[in-house]
Amino acid sequence: HAGWCVGPRYIASVTPFLAAAVAFAWRRVRSPWALSLITAGLVLPSVFLNVLSGAIYPHYPEQYDNPVFDLTLPLLGAGYVPYSLGWLLGAPGLWSLAPLAAAVLAAVSFGVGGPDQRPRRYWLHASLATVMALALLAAQGRYGRKPSAAEAQATRLVRAVWEPAPRR
């Protein structure tokens, strides 16, 4: 279950050990390009899920098995957008999240291109990593697609207390 708050609290303690393992494997692998492709393909969905969760509604009720796909994305689709820099600047609806999206895209674009920075190889690497990420997200999005009665009740509660009210 998702718990009540999104965050790295469960993985933070193991991160140094994972980083050491990746660094060790990186030196021994015959194709650093392939390893960086796999790494980027796994990091992109993580960034997407965590940024979306943290920016939209990070306090998931425990009823959800798959909260990003069962609560966050449906909320966005229905016009429930939180206060943000874009909102402050007067951007309507989903457009209010454009500054956040631009900042995240700029940040991940530096790492998704792989070890070879020649433009053609960069775009090939970035495209393959993105395809891998989309495949992983599509597979995850299929999990728990039929909401339970408890999830439907939790969704009604979240919508009832949402601030600012969605623009119709």
Please specify the SSE layout and strand pairing.
Elements: H1 15-28, H2 32-56, H3 67-77, H4 85-88, H5 98-109, H6 119-141, H7 149-161
Question: How would you describe this structure in keywords?
Answer:
single chain, 168 residues, mainly alpha, 7 helices, 61% helix, globular
In brief:
By secondary structure, this protein is mainly alpha-helical.
Describe this structure in words.
By secondary structure, the chain is mainly alpha-helical. Helix content is 61%, strand content 0%. It contains seven helices and no strands. The chain has helices at 15-28, 32-56, 67-77, 85-88, 98-109, 119-141, 149-161. The longest helix has 25 residues, at 32-56.
Overall mean confidence score, pLDDT: 85
Which structural class should the secondary elements be placed in? Answer: mainly alpha
Q: Helix amount, in percent?
A: 55-70%
Distance between the termini: 32 Å
Uncertain segments are: none
Major β-sheet profile: none
β-strand amount: under 5%
